[in-house]
Design a protein that fits this description.
Blueprint (H helix, E strand, L loop, with lengths): L1 E4 L10 H20 L18 H8 L6 E18 L3 E7 L5 E7 H4 L1 H10 L5 E10 L5 E12 L14 H6 L1 H7 L1 H23 L3 E2 L5 E2 L11 E4 L4 E5 L4 H9 L4 E9 L11 E10 L3 H20 L3 E3 L5 E3 L5 E4 H9 L9 H11 L9 H12 L8 E7 L15 E9 L2 E8 L4 H16 L10 H8 L5 E7 H9 L3 H4 L7
Parallel strand pairs: 4-6, 7-11, 15-16
Antiparallel strand pairs: 1-2, 2-3, 2-5, 3-4, 5-6, 8-10, 9-10, 11-12, 12-19, 13-14, 16-17, 17-18, 18-19
Length: 507
């Protein structure tokens, strides 16, 4: 009797053991091809006659009593993840893409001596195999196919990792295809992400939003304070930027009369990578005419809570480490300046001088921000004093004017703008504005940003004349928001950003 379990797959494909296994499997591939006269068969047939899926059979027959015959014949395909060969009976576990499994029982009585021997000689762990036969429950109660016919659907040339050992994080990230084969959590995360996106679209549809698409290649970067990736168009012989945000194009759409728009898009920022940042990431942005930052905060809370319910069945979610986190109820809304003043033990206002802010930083060990301004100091100090103490989802309201060039000034508080950042699980998940719609003030803000850029601030915005021209045709009052899809998955699942992105960028 022989029994196979998936063996460790070294990082180097040409490790001696893997090299030997690959050579053996290549020989089996040659044999399979040689045994088939038609090009459609062999080790890689064009198709196999599948009639059912493994999940569907489990849903239909999963509660069979032990040692039960159904009389139902099914043809299924799956990846071999376990194999045990005895003299007259071979067992294999076939796994589908969602991780569900069914046992294949290949017996001498059912397939004959030649087919049984070929199974023993040709089938390896990792192969995709088609089997056809009666659906039964084994004497141990395991849902099985009593095989009468089988075929290789795709021959694997490299071995699988050990299914009973945890993959390292590095292997999970670099070889996500293996991660998806081996680990339930990896498959669940991919499906959760799809569920989240579907929920977001459903909520927007209920509020009569239109989904649109905007350019990824732009002649001028804007819509956020970030360092862009730069490329060159041979066709146009010009420098182009990968977008850092879709904001300025979405606002053009609103000028054109699309009063409620959203986009789920890819953004690119040429900055650092850590547990909450990736150079390439998915972003949701939405703009709604005739509302403000309070209205867009209400919408954002609804979007997130609906997504949590879609994935977890409740606004109370359980993270991968077992932590229970409550996304339900009405979320707190706190003032940035008031919360900073309370935590720092002294009043900080929009009128606090740069020297006073430097003094607070020096006394508490907070380093000066690059290209320091009043607003950058306030935000640095707020992160030092307040951010770590936020546990429940919290909207942090009313930001400094000089760090928010696209935001309307506060209607009643001088020196701040109507902007919020939403903090969940200790990180910024979303941001929202009462949008600036006065083209004259917007031009002034762009000029100030251009001065920062001239002084070496790579994150500062440039003057976007085409966007200003659109504004000059009349932009309606609106609220807007942006939210990282990867971070939304982090908030719901408790995972790090490299786990929520299917194929993250790695060195």
């Amino acid at each position: 009797m022989t029994e196979q379990h998936a063996q460790p797959a070294p990082a180097d494909e040409f490790d001696d053991d893997v090299f030997e296994q690959k050579a053996v499997r290549l020989a089996k591939r040659e044999r399979l091809i040689a045994e088939r006269a038609d090009a459609a068969g062999g080790a890689y047939p064009v198709t196999v006659p599948v009639t059912d899926t493994i999940p569907a059979l489990r849903a239909r027959f999963g509660e069979l009593e032990p040692d039960t015959q159904t009389g139902v014949v099914a043809g299924v395909a799956g990846r071999v993840v376990f194999s045990r060969n005895t003299g007259k009976l071979c067992f294999a576990s076939l796994q589908s893409g969602d991780g569900s499994r069914i046992q294949a029982m290949v017996s001498l009585a059912s397939v004959g001596e030649d087919a049984l021997q070929r199974w023993k000689e040709l089938v390896d762990l990792g192969d995709h195999v088609f089997v056809s036969g009666e659906v039964i429950s084994s004497r141990r109660g395991e849902l099985s196919i009593m095989v009468t016919d089988w075929a290789i659907a795709a021959k694997a040339l490299l071995p699988l990792p050990n299914l009973h050992s945890e993959l390292s994080e590095e292997t999970r990230v670099r070889s996500r295809f293996l991660d998806l084969i081996v680990r339930d959590q990896a498959r669940h995360t991919v499906r959760a992400r799809s569920t989240v996106n579907a929920s977001l679209r459903q909520t927007f549809s209920a509020h009569e939003f239109i989904e649109v698409e905007t350019p990824m290649l732009q002649v001028q970067h804007g819509g956020a304070s970030a360092r862009p990736f730069v490329t060159h168009s041979n066709a146009f012989d010009t420098e182009l930027y990968l977008r850092i945000a879709p904001e300025l194009f979405l606002k053009r759409a609103v000028v054109g009369g699309l009063d409620r728009v959203f986009e789920i898009n890819r953004n690119f920022r040429n900055e650092g990578a850590d547990s909450t940042h990736s150079p390439e990431f998915a972003m949701l942005e939405a703009y709604q005419s005739y509302t403000d930052y309070n209205g867009i905060a209400d919408l954002t809370q609804e979007l997130i809570q609906n997504a949590a319910v879609a994935v977890a069945g409740s606004t109370t979610v359980t993270w991968a480490d077992g932590t229970v986190y409550d996304l339900g109820g009405e979320w707190d809304r706190i003032s940035m300046y008031d919360s900073l003043s309370a935590a720092a033990g002294r009043e900080v206002t929009p009128a606090t001088s740069l020297d006073d802010l430097r003094a607070i930083g020096a006394a508490t060990g907070v380093d000066a921000p690059a290209h320091e301004t009043h607003g950058k100091w306030v935000e640095e100090l707020w992160e030092h004093f307040v951010k770590g103490g936020l546990t429940r989802p919290t909207f942090v309201m009313d930001f400094p004017l000089d760090t928010s060039p696209l935001v309307r000034e506060h209607r009643s508080i001088a020196g701040v703008v109507e902007k919020w950042d939403l903090y969940v699980r200790g990180f910024e998940l979303a941001t929202g504005y009462s949008e600036l719609i006065d083209p004259v003030i917007q031009r002034e803000r762009f000029v100030e940003q251009a001065k920062l850029a001239a002084r070496g601030d790579d994150e500062a915005m440039r003057i976007d004349e085409e966007f200003l021209r659109a504004m000059e045709h009349g932009m309606p009052p609106m609220g807007g928001m942006g939210m990282g899809i990867d971070r939304l998955l982090m908030a719901i699942t408790g995972l790090g950003i490299r786990e929520t992105i299917l194929f993250p960028l790695v060195k």
